[in-house]
Design goal:
Largest sheet: 5 strands, parallel
Strand content: 5-15%
Number of domains: 1
Helix content: 55-70%
Radius of gyration: 14 Å
CATH topology: Rossmann fold
Strand order of the largest sheet: 3-2-1-4-5
CATH architecture: 3-Layer(aba) Sandwich
Structural class: alpha/beta
Length: 142
């Protein structure tokens, strides 16, 4: 079964963080997908915060076999609905990109690989499934 990666999950793989080991079987089975908006987030963060070259990151993602999920306009609209229902500045700070990944995973019948606690709660409340990954400190979303 395919797994949809949020931006952090792919960044963790690219940087060799704790979640990378858990995603290895998914990557080896070529079962990983990422929404294009979340891939854009990966490129942005890796370039701005890690000084990486965007073309090299795209090449690394291709070598890993991570497929780009199909963009559906209805999913983008629903992401706005989900964020409207779940966002709270301090209690549940889900980004619109988190919501896009969550909707795409749920609509595609895939678990969302994430370490984001707020996103994980939202996905579960909407009836989706989560592959709970450790963050850079080893903590997993509940």
């Amino acid at each position: 079964m395919s797994v949809l990666l949020d931006a952090y999950a792919l960044i963790a793989v690219l940087r060799g963080e704790p979640a990378a080991e858990e995603l290895r079987p998914v990557l080896e089975a070529n079962d990983a997908e990422i929404h294009p908006l979340n891939l854009a987030e990966v490129l942005d963060r890796m370039v701005r915060l890690a000084g990486a070259d965007a073309d090299e990151i795209e090449a690394d993602v291709a070598v890993l076999g991570v497929r780009t999920a199909v963009v559906k306009a209805a999913d983008l609209v629903d992401a706005g609905r989900w964020r409207g229902r779940h966002y709270h500045r301090s209690g549940r700070p889900v980004s619109l990109a988190d919501c896009v990944a969550a909707v795409a995973a749920a609509r595609g019948g895939m678990p969302l690989a994430t370490s984001d606690p707020a996103c994980a709660v939202m996905v579960r409340e909407e009836g989706g499934t989560v592959l709970a990954l450790p963050d850079s400190t080893g903590k997993r979303p509940e």
